C-alpha cells in the first residue's frame, strides 16, 4: 500500500487536457441545462465525440478486446473532468459499470467479447441493471453482488423489475442479474425488444436520470453463472464506486473554483465579499477537503488499476470521504453565491443535484464506513 | 509539469558509495557518537542538498532518504532531529540563506550534530499571530546592538546555546519594515529563561526576558530593517518541516484509539463507533494527502499542501484524543500526573489520553494558528483578496497598542 502512485502521469495530464478541451467546447453549463430540459436520456453527439471518437469508452478494456488498454487511473481522470462539467453522458454507467461487468465474465466467450467490444468502441451503450444506490462492498468485507429482483425462466427469458437504474434510459444493452433454476446469473438483454420497458423517472440529478426497467419474458442470453456473475458484478460495483470518487472530486473542484471566482468579483459593503474572513475560511476549509479528497481518489484509482489487495479499503475510504466533500462543496457553492445560487439559470444547482445523488450512488458514506469496520477490524458493539 | 529534469551532480549510487566510505572509516560500533556525526557532516552526508563544505554535496533534497536509509541499516547513530528540530527546521535554512561565510562555518556543524541546541525568539506576549507587531527593541551602540524585551512560547530555551531573534530596530518605520534579525547567544548576560507551565501541567515552553543583552553586529542575519523578509524564510521552512514525514496506516493518533477499541470491547458504544469510523476515514485521507505531498516533493513539484497537512493534523489530533477520553469512560475522568516536568520532547504517544487531549489543543495554535493558516491558504492559494489593513503604512510607534 505504500508504493501507490498518487500523482498524475504525463499521459494522464494529456488525456485530461483533451477531455477538458472537448467539454469546454461542447458542454458548457448552458448546454447542460438545455440538454437536461430536452427530455433526452443523454447528449448523444457529445457521447459520440467523447466515447467513440476520443476512445474513452474503452479505456478499461484491453486492446485485444477492442478497447484502449488503459486502467482505472486514466478512467479516473476522465471521471474528474466529467464531474467538473456535470456532463450528461453515460460514461459511468456504460464505460465503467457495464464494461467492468463484462470484463468480469469469461471474455473467451464469443458473446461476451462481442458485447464488450461494442461497448468499448462506444457503438453500444450498456447499463448494469441494478439500482444506482447499490453498495459495492458488503459489510464484513469483500465485494458482493446485490440480490436479483429478476427471474430467469426456462432457457433464457427474463421477467421482473429493477428500480432506479442509472443509464438504462438510452441504453442499447442491459446487463441483468437474475435468478433461475440454475441459480444466480448475469444476462444480456437488448432494450429494443418489445418485452423490455424502460420508463424514465423524474430524478433529483437531471444529468444522470434514473429509469425503472420492466422485463416481461424478455429474450436474454446468459453471460455468467453463479459465482462468476456475482464476482463480476461485485468487482464492477467496486470499480464504479472507486471511480465515482474522482467524479465527486471534479464536482467539488468546480464548485470551489466558481465560488472563489464569484466572491472575488461580487462586491457588498464596499469590498469584494471574498475578502471577508468568515467567507475566506470556509473556502480555505473546502480547499483542505479537496487536497485529501484528491489523495483518496487517486489512491482508489491506483489500487483498482493495480488490482491491489487493499482495493476494497481504498474504495471505501474514497467513497466515505469524497461523497461528503462533494456535497459540502456544492452546498457552500449555492450558499456563497447568494440569491443567484438559487436560480435555474446558474449552474450551481446542477452540481448540487449531482453531488447529492452521487452521495447515495453505489453506497452512501455511512454504508462505506460500515464496510470499513469489517475490513479494518473496528467492529461494532455487540447488542 | 516539467518534462526535463536536471541531472543531479551527485546521484543515489554516488551517495551510497560515499556512505560506505564513511562507514569503513568510522565503524559505528566502535566510533564515539559525536565523532561519527562530525565525520558524517564533514563527508557531506548530513543534509545532502546543502553546499559542499557545509554538510552537503549540492545533491537533490529527495536523495537524503537514500543516505538516511543506508545509515540506519548500518546502525549508525542519528542526530535526533526531534530534539534539535528548531535548529534544523528554522535556524539552519535561514543561516544558509542569509548568513555570512563565517556564520555558516561556525554555526551549522554543531547545529546539525546537536552539540548546540537552538531556540527561536519570535513570539511575544503582544505579538503572536500578528508577529510583526513585536516590541522587543534592539538599539545600536557602536559595534553592538543592545536588546530589551520579552519573548514567550520558547521551546528548548532552557537547553539552547543559540537563538534566532527578531527585534525592532526602527520604530519610525511601519511595523514590517523596522525589524532586524539576529543570532542571540543564550549564555550572554541579560538573558533570563523562566519555565512557562501550561495546560498539561508540564513546562515545555519558556518565557525569555532580555535585559540589556549585547549582540555584536556581526551576528545580524540580513540587512538592517530586512528582518521580516528573513523571518519569512524561517517560517516557511518551519511549515515544510511540520508537513513532511511518511507514516503507515494508523500511524498517528488514530492507531492508539483503534487499538483500545479492538482490545476493550466492553467500552464500545454505537455512537462512539460512528465517530471512530469517521475519524479513521479522515485520518487515512490525511495520511494519503501527506503521502501525495511527499511524492510531489520527490519529483520536484512542491505544492502549497504543507499548510493543509498542519491544519488537518491539528484538527484530527484534537478530535481523536477527545474521542479517546470519552471511550475510556471511568478512566477518562482521571489524569496520569500533574507534576511539573520539563520535557525535552513533546511525547504524544507515550502518555495517556487525557494528556493527549490537552496537549493537542496547542496543535491549532503553535507554528501559526489554524485561523492564520486558513487566511494564508485563502489569499495565497485561492487568490482571495486580503482584508483591509489599517496598520499598513503607519509607523510602528504610532500604532495603537
Automatic annotation (TrEMBL), chain A:
Domain Acyl-CoA dehydrogenase/oxidase N-terminal: 9-121
Cited InterPro entries: Acyl-CoA_Oxase/DH_mid-dom_sf (IPR046373), AcylCo_DH-like_C (IPR036250), AcylCo_DH/oxidase_C (IPR009075), AcylCoA_DH/ox_N (IPR013786), AcylCoA_DH/ox_N_sf (IPR037069), AcylCoA_DH/oxidase_NM_dom_sf (IPR009100)
SUPFAM superfamilies in the cross-refs: Acyl-CoA dehydrogenase C-terminal domain-like, Acyl-CoA dehydrogenase NM domain-like
Gene3D superfamilies tied to this protein: Acyl-CoA dehydrogenase/oxidase, N-terminal domain, Butyryl-CoA Dehydrogenase, subunit A, domain 2, Butyryl-CoA Dehydrogenase, subunit A, domain 3
Domain of life: Bacteria
The keyword Oxidoreductase appears for this protein: yes
Residue ranges occupied by any Acyl-CoA dehydrogenase/oxidase C-terminal domain in the UniProt entry: 236-372
Record's keyword annotation contains Oxidoreductase: yes
Pfam family, one: Acyl-CoA_dh_1
Cofactor(s) annotated in UniProt: FAD
This protein's UniProt keywords: FAD, Flavoprotein, Oxidoreductase
Entry's family note: Belongs to the acyl-CoA dehydrogenase family.
Protein name: Acyl-CoA dehydrogenase family protein
From TrEMBL, chain B:
Domain Acyl-CoA oxidase/dehydrogenase middle, chain residue ranges per copy: 119-203
InterPro entries (UniProt xref): Acyl-CoA_Oxase/DH_mid-dom, Acyl-CoA_Oxase/DH_mid-dom_sf, AcylCo_DH-like_C, AcylCo_DH/oxidase_C, AcylCoA_DH/ox_N, AcylCoA_DH/ox_N_sf, AcylCoA_DH/oxidase_NM_dom_sf, Mycobact_Acyl-CoA_DH
Pfam families: Acyl-CoA_dh_1, Acyl-CoA_dh_M, Acyl-CoA_dh_N
Cofactor: FAD
Entry keyword set: FAD, Flavoprotein, Oxidoreductase
Presence of keyword Flavoprotein: yes
Protein name as catalogued: Acyl-CoA dehydrogenase
Family listed: Belongs to the acyl-CoA dehydrogenase family.
Residue intervals of the Acyl-CoA dehydrogenase/oxidase N-terminal domain: 15-115
Domain of life of the native organism: Bacteria
Acyl-CoA dehydrogenase/oxidase C-terminal domain boundaries: 225-382
Amino acid at each position: 500500500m505504500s508504493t501507490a502512485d498518487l500523482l498524475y502521469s504525463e499521459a494522464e495530464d494529456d488525456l485530461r487536457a483533451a477531455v477538458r478541451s472537448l467539454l469546454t467546447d461542447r458542454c458548457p453549463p448552458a448546454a447542460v441545462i438545455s440538454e437536461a430540459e430536452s427530455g433526452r436520456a443523454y447528449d448523444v453527439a457529445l457521447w459520440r465525440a467523447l466515447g467513440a471518437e476520443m476512445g474513452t469508452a474503452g479505456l478499461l478494456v484491453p486492446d485485444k478486446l477492442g478497447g484502449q488498454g488503459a486502467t482505472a487511473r486514466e478512467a479516473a481522470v476522465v471521471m474528474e473532468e466529467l464531474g467538473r462539467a456535470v456532463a450528461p453522458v453515460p460514461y459511468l454507467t456504460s464505460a465503467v459499470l457495464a464494461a467492468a461487468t463484462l470484463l468480469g465474465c469469461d471474455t473467451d466467450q464469443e458473446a461476451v467479447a462481442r458485447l464488450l467490444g461494442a461497448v468499448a468502441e462506444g457503438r453500444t451503450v450498456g447499463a448494469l441493471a441494478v439500482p444506482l444506490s447499490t453498495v459495492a462492498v458488503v459489510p464484513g468485507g469483500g465485494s458482493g453482488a446485490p440480490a436479483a429482483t429478476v427471474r430467469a425462466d426456462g432457457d433464457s427469458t427474463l421477467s421482473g423489475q429493477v428500480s432506479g437504474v442509472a443509464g438504462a434510459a438510452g441504453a442499447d444493452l442491459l446487463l441483468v442479474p437474475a435468478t433461475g433454476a440454475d441459480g444466480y446469473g448475469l444476462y444480456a438483454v437488448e432494450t429494443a425488444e418489445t418485452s423490455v420497458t424502460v420508463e424514465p423517472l423524474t430524478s433529483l440529478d437531471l444529468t444522470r436520470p434514473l429509469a425503472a426497467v420492466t422485463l416481461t419474458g424478455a429474450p436474454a442470453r446468459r453471460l455468467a453463472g453463479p459465482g462468476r456473475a456475482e464476482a463480476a458484478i461485485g468487482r464492477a460495483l467496486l470499480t464504479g464506486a472507486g471511480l465515482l470518487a474522482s467524479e465527486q472530486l471534479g464536482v467539488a473542484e468546480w464548485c470551489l473554483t466558481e465560488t472563489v471566482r464569484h466572491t472575488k468579483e461580487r462586491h457588498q459593503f464596499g469590498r469584494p465579499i471574498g475578502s471577508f474572513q468568515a467567507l475566506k475560511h470556509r473556502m480555505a476549509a473546502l480547499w483542505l477537503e479537496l487536497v485529501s479528497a484528491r489523495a483518496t481518489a487517486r489512491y482508489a484509482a491506483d489500487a483498482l488499476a493495480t488490482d491491489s489487495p487493499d482495493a476494497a479499503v481504498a474504495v471505501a475510504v474514497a467513497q466515505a470521504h469524497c461523497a461528503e466533500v462533494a456535497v459540502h462543496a456544492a452546498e457552500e457553492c449555492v450558499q456563497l453565491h447568494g440569491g443567484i445560487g438559487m436560480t435555474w439559470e446558474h449552474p450551481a444547482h446542477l452540481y448540487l443535484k449531482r453531488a447529492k445523488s452521487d452521495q447515495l450512488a453505489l453506497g452512501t458514506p455511512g454504508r462505506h464506513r460500515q464496510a470499513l469496520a469489517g475490513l479494518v477490524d473496528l467492529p461494532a458493539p455487540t447488542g | 509539469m516539467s518534462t526535463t529534469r536536471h541531472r543531479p551532480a551527485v546521484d543515489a549510487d554516488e551517495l551510497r558509495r560515499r556512505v560506505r566510505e564513511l562507514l569503513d572509516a568510522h565503524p559505528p560500533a566502535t566510533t564515539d557518537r559525536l565523532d561519527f556525526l562530525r565525520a558524517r557532516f564533514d563527508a557531506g552526508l548530513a543534509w545532502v542538498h546543502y553546499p559542499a563544505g557545509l554538510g552537503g554535496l549540492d545533491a537533490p533534497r529527495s536523495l537524503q532518504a537514500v543516505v538516511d536509509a543506508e545509515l540506519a541499516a548500518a546502525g549508525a547513530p542519528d542526530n535526533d532531529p526531534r530534539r534539535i528540530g528548531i535548529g534544523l527546521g528554522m535556524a539552519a535554512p535561514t543561516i544558509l540563506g542569509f548568513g555570512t561565510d563565517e556564520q555558516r562555518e561556525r554555526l551549522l556543524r554543531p547545529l546539525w550534530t546537536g552539540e548546540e541546541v537552538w531556540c527561536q525568539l519570535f513570539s511575544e506576549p503582544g505579538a503572536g499571530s500578528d508577529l510583526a507587531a513585536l516590541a522587543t527593541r534592539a538599539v545600536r551602540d557602536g559595534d553592538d546592538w543592545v536588546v530589551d524585551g520579552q519573548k514567550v512560547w520558547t521551546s528548548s530555551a532552557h537547553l539552547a546555546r543559540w537563538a534566532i531573534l527578531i527585534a525592532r530596530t526602527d520604530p519610525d518605520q511601519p511595523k514590517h519594515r523596522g525589524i532586524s534579525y539576529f543570532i542571540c547567544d543564550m549564555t550572554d548576560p541579560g538573558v533570563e529563561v523562566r519555565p512557562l507551565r501550561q495546560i498539561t501541567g508540564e513546562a515545555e515552553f519558556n518565557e525569555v526576558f532580555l535585559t540589556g543583552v549585547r549582540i555584536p553586529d556581526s551576528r545580524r542575519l540580513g540587512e538592517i530593517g530586512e528582518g521580516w523578509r528573513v523571518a519569512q524564510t524561517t517560517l516557511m521552512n518551519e511549515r515544510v518541516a511540520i508537513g513532511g514525514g511518511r507514516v503507515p496506516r494508523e500511524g498517528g493518533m488514530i492507531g492508539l484509539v483503534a487499538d483500545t477499541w479492538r482490545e476493550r470491547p466492553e467500552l464500545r458504544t454505537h455512537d462512539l463507533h460512528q465517530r471512530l469510523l469517521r475519524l479513521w476515514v479522515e485520518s487515512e485521507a490525511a495520511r494519503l494527502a501527506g503521502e501525495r505531498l511527499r511524492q510531489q516533493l520527490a519529483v520536484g513539484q512542491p505544492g502549497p499542501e504543507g499548510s493543509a497537512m498542519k491544519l488537518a493534523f491539528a484538527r484530527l489530533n484534537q478530535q481523536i484524543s477527545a474521542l479517546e477520553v470519552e471511550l475510556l469512560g471511568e478512566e477518562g475522568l482521571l489524569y496520569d500526573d500533574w507534576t511539573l516536568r520539563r520535557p525535552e520532547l513533546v511525547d504524544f504517544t507515550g502518555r495517556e489520553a487525557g494528556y493527549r487531549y490537552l496537549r493537542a489543543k496547542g496543535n491549532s495554535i503553535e507554528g501559526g494558528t489554524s485561523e492564520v493558516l486558513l487566511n494564508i491558504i485563502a489569499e495565497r492559494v485561492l487568490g482571495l483578496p486580503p482584508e483591509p489593513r489599517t496598520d499598513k503604512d503607519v509607523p510602528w510607534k504610532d500604532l495603537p497598542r
